[in-house]
Amino acid sequence: MSALLEAQDVTRVFGSGLLGAGRTVAVDGVSLVISEDTPTITTIAGESGSGKTTLARLLLGMIQPTSGEILYRGQRMKAMDGRARKEFRRQVQAIFQDPYEAYNPVYKVDQVLQTPVRKFGLVTSRDEARQRIEESLRLAGLRPEDTLGRYPHQLSGGQRQRIMVARALLLHPRVILADEPVSMVDASLRATILESLVRLKRELGISLIYITHDLTTAYQVSQNIYVLYRGSVAEVGSVERVIREPKHPYTRLLVSSIPLPDPDVRWGGEGDTAARAATPNGPPRETRGCKYANRCPYVMPECRQAPPPLYRTDDDRAVACYLHKDSPPVSGRDIAEALAHGG
Amino acid sequence: MSTATLSGSGTSSLGARAAQQGALRRVLAFFRDNPMFTAGVLLLLALYLFGIIGLQLINQKGADMGAVPLNQSPSAAHPLGTDGLGRDMFAVMVIGIPNTFKIGFLAGAVGVIIGTLVGLFAGYYRGLPDAVFSSFADVMLVIPTLAILITVSAYVRVVTVELMAIIVGLLAWPLPARVIRSQTLSLRERLFVQVAKLSGENDFEIITRQILPNLTAYLAASFVGAVSGGVLASVGLEVLGLGPQNVPTIGRTLFYAFKYTALLRGMWWWWAPPVVMLAILFTGLFQISISLDKYANPRLKGSSSG
Amino acid sequence: MASAPPQEQTSQTSRACVLEVQDLRVSYQTSAGPVRAVNGVSFFLRPGERLGLVGESGSGKTTTALGLMRLLQESAVIEGGQVLLDGVDLLGLSDDDMRLARFATISLIPQGAMNSLNPMMKIGEQLRDTIRAHRNGTATTSTKRAIDARIQEVLHSVELNTAVMDSYPHELSGGMKQRVCIAMAILLNPKVIIADEPTSALDVVVQRQVMETFRRVQEALGAAVILVGHDMGLMAQFVDRVGVMYGGKLVEVGPVRGIFKDPLHPYTQLLIKSLPNLQTKEDFRGIPGLTPSLLAPPPGCMFHPRCPHAMPRCSVDVPVLSEIETDRWVACHLYDGGRP
After folding, report:
1. pLDDT tens column, B169-222
2. Is C96 an interface residue toward B (CB < 8 Å)?
3. Could you tell me if residue C266 is inside a domain?
4. Where along chain B do its domains lie?
């Protein structure tokens, strides 16, 4: 298995502050692998503060890691020259969460489609450009005559988001990073947009990285999932394992908090000890041990000593929790590669 | 399946003519929706036309010194009388107003162009360039510009209208720079800028194609502010006797009026017309500036539920 | 477009309800013309009941909720209808009386605490303000000590440390701010609480905590709740009855189980089918078509252009919300026994 896009033990720290007071470790030693062989959809799941957005920006090359490497097809991002970067840019694209903010309000939506075509020199004539744009729009489920020539505010949120999908497709990328692509879209349209994303994988062989806090859609859409908590990987594996039989206490809390659309299956399962002691807070202080220790109903003394490594409890899953220390420890990179291989 | 959209507009294939009509309608709608802006523009326009049309009506020589009998109160031959230097006041006003406009707009343009360039650069690149330019701008904002202008004028003996405008403009850039810088700082974080970067746009394109078009309201507001400041500064210099000497300007007229004690001598036609013209000019600029504030400061746009 | 016959009201008025909305109509003035955002909405709320008002963008659910409290923007005009709270028509009250009624008899938990909390004031002060601004003369909370005691009692019930009273909003987390908003909403023991997507900005774990707290205090208070939102999962977990809105109208109202297990209106059916679940993968069933334009609405039923069961009549007659079974209301020609 060769890796298309991978993060090797990546850490990203923001701010320095005096005496390190203003430091935030947004991403803390995360490894992730997207395989080149078969197209897959991989979820990066977490809530706000989990670091998933920062990880996305690292994978897109928009910011640099403080330590660790991002590699594209074996090439280190830091070592890429201008031409390699441009090629990377063409092959790794993104769809963002906010279908309104993604557009510059002074321009018609055409601009968002014409710019990549122009800047990457993909076509030689105006007609070719128009053709390519129309083809992309149709792939995204839109009719060109209904969408081109309009301003963003004249279209619905669903249409705007689909134009963003079309834009991501224009360059015929290998990987598309979708950051909460449907969270700001109406419920009835979500299924349609998610379906078009899955079709991108099936029909065009594009791998997707799906970033979300919604585990239900993650289950529907992806094969593998990385659950992040405050910058670290809490649990990683296939969605069948991680979502249907979660092992990390945080994952279990997440899964049990999902409001299932079934009145007979009310919220149950894990509680959260932190809620009872809610006090005004500042940014979480860096701790020595497991980051989840203060909230964990199963916390043990060793949890506060050092952060737990990933323990491989199944072929296709690993948990960073001392509850499972009987399973063999595995490095982030190894489990990531194993997952990518299995996919 | 109908093309239902939020605005309910029809098909997307607008002809060029329809697009033009749309643009014209939008412009007219803008004037209709902003009565204060329209009033200000009309005031300025009236003032300027007074100058332009008046130029056709008068004998330009009448503005030279000694051209006409001195100290005449307004009459049929000299609608605004004559001053103590033998100049027909009407002629002086008619020539002076376009000059004042010229100074104001030139100074305003210079100030805004420099300020915008500095603001964009500092706001987009941040770091060291920002620290340097911002400190420089902050220092300049604190120093009284009139003091600098007076000092400069003392050294530059022969001053044309254009030269004075440029000098004034060179001191007017810090305020627009600060405004543009702070807007650039926030615009560069917007999602559409990230999208443009991913689409391959380089820094120059991001600044000019993504950020700059979103600054039009601020540019317009800064321009009006700079024009006001420029006129004020130049009139201030002229009233003190500095500035262009051979060209009739409003401020210079006031200088002469003070120098020859027109006030005490009851020669209202000497000091009143310049003052009235200035009042109209600043009222117009002020109205435009206030009405643009609504666009430059969206929080003023009116609140939702009370 | 045929005009709609008067709504069937018979069984409603005989039930004891704390809130009764009759034929509410709200329009917005836009540059392109008037837009009827709420088009003849009628429903009732029993004491202590939790009603979910569900719909997508443009359905009119938020306008309805805010309209009940007369908190709409200036460009919105309440064109008609009645909002009877314990028999008193809120729409007919003077501005002053309405202000007193807010938070005292009917209160609001807004979407996003930033809309409700003043960033420059401490929490305690804002809560005191709420009591002072909206209480009527007969309230027992008149002295500062009594006011503070009430505030502490309420903060305790929403599981907030009373230290919060001396904090500014920005010092609190999202979940805590939303709890403050809940506290604010229950301070004066209102009979009805309107919660407008109160958890949309919150993470799923915090959302659950906040909603569970909300349910507890609401049940203790005996207040009725209207939960406005688009998250069907949240509705299933929280409410007793659901009202589904589409294109400015209520298309179906019924008990939560009935809506989820046996939806009647075609839109509701498609909506339920489109919900993601943890059973099947890659099974996507979106609703084709676009949300209707409120500027140029389709004739007859608002949903007919997208409806898989559309009949010729649907593009002519506007269906009326009728009670076709006990406590199940649908606005659809499939059920009104008329001609197809």
Report:
1. 888 899 899 999 999 999 999 999 999 999 999 999 999 999 999 998 889 889
2. no
3. yes
4. 76-297
Contact A107 B9 (CB under 8 A): no
**Phi then psi dihedrals of residue C77, to 5 deg:** -125, 125
Give the strand order in the sheet containing C192-196: C106-109, C192-196, C224-229, C50-54, C241-246, C249-255, C328-330, C322-325
Amino acid at B121: F
Determine the distance in angstroms separating the CA of C50 from the nearest CA of chain A, rounded to an integer: 13
For A318, phi then psi, to 5°, come to -140, 145
Answer whether residue C50 shows pLDDT above 60.
yes
Q: B152, B91 in Cβ contact below 8 A?
A: no
Token pair 């036309």 in the structure block, residue: B49
Residue at C108: amino acid letter: L
pLDDT of residue B14: 45
Does residue A74 have a pLDDT over 50?
Answer: yes
Whether residue B1 lies within 8 A of chain C, CB to CB, comes out as yes
Of C172, C236, C275, the CB nearest to A263: C236
| Nearest neighbour of B5 by CB, restricted to A107, A149, A154 | A154
Interatomic CA distance for residues A93 and A103, integer angstroms: 16
Residues of B in contact with C292 (CB under 8 A): 4
Q: Which residue has the higher pLDDT, A17 or A150?
A: A150
Residue range of the domain that includes C258:
10-330
| Chain B, nearest residue to A117 by Cα | B199
Residue C5 covered by a domain? no
Express as a percent the part of chain C with pLDDT over 70: 92
C16 touches chain B (CB under 8 A): no
Domain assignment of residue C338, yes or no: no
Confirm or reject contact between C119 and chain B (CB < 8 A): no
Which H or E run contains C245?
strand C241-246
Give CA separation, C50 vs C87, C222, C223, C255, in Å.
19, 10, 9, 10
Q: Do C167 and A217 make contact, defined as CB atoms within 8 angstroms? A: no
- 8 Å CB contact of B305 and C66: yes
What is the distance in angstroms between the Cα of A31 and the nearest Cα belonging to chain C? 24
Structural domain tally of chain C?
A: 1
How many angstroms separate the CA atoms of C81 and C306, rounded? 29
A220–C281 C-beta distance less than 8 A = yes
The CA-based angle A47-A51-A52, given to 5 degrees, is 70
List of chain B residues with pLDDT < 50: 1-15, 300-306
The predicted structure's pLDDT at residue A314: 92
B-facing residues of C in 22-41 (CB < 8 A) are: 32
| Domain CATH code at residue C135 | 3.40.50.300
The subunits that touch chain A, with at least 3 C-beta pairs less than 8 Å apart, are B, C
Q: Among 3.40.50.12780, 3.40.50.1980, 3.40.50.2300, 1.10.3720.10, name the CATH number for the domain at B76-297.
A: 1.10.3720.10
Query: How does pLDDT run across B19-48, given as a tens digit for each residue?
Result: 566 778 878 888 887 888 889 999 999 988
Instruction: Quote the pLDDT of residue B5.
Output: 33
Count of A-B CB contacts under 8 Å: 71
High-pLDDT (> 90) share of chain A, %: 63
| Pairwise CA distance, residues C225 & C216, whole Å | 12
Interface of C with B in 64-93 (CB under 8 A): 66, 71-74
Lookup result for tokens 């987009």 = B124
For residue A246, give Cα distances in angstroms to A51, A255, A297, B137.
20, 8, 15, 58
**DSSP annotation string for B159-182:** --HHHHHHHHHHTT-HHHHHHHHH
- Domain membership of residue C229 (yes or no) is yes
Yes or no, beta carbons of A258 and C204 under 8 Å apart: yes
Which among B12, B191, B201 is the nearest to A145, CB-wise? B12
- Burial (Cβ within 10 Å: 0-12, 13-18, ≥19) of residue C237: buried
